[in-house]
Write a structure and sequence with these properties.
The protein is α/β, with parallel strands linked by helices and 132 residues long. The protein contains five helices and four strands. It has a four-stranded parallel beta sheet, sandwiched between helices. Helix 3 links the parallel strand 3 and strand 4. The radius of gyration is 14 Å and the shape is globular.
Length: 132
Amino acid sequence: MADATRLLRSRGTTSVAWVGGCLGGTLMLGMLTDRTARPAGVAGISPLASLGGYTAGSGTAYDGELLLLGTADDPLSDEGKLREVAHGFPKAEVTVLPGTLHAAEIFAGPHGEAARRSLDGFLGRTFAPAGG
C-alpha cells in the first residue's frame, strides 16, 4: 500500500484513499505511522482491534479523512471493538450499523445502502477539491 501510494504520487496523483476490510483495515491503520506514504483518507471496514497493528497514539497525528465502519454485533469486530480502535484515532468518523455482518458482507446486507452512503461520504470528503 505504501509503495503503491508513493508510485501514484510520483506519477502526479494528488489524493489517494485506502479502503480495506477486516485485517486489511487493521493493517492500513498501522501503516499511518509512515508519514511519507500517508493517504488522504483511510476507511477501515470492520478492523480487528484484537490484532492491533497500530498503537494507541499512532492516529493522533493523522489529519486525513478516517472512517471506521462496522456492525453492532459483528462476532469479530463488534461496536465495542470498533470504538476501541477509534480511541487511537481521535478524528475518526465511526459508523455502526445494526446486525452481525463483517467487512464486505455489510455492503450486501440489509443495511448495505447505509454502508454505501457512509463510504461514499468518506470518499467525497477525501477527494473534495481544496477549499471546497
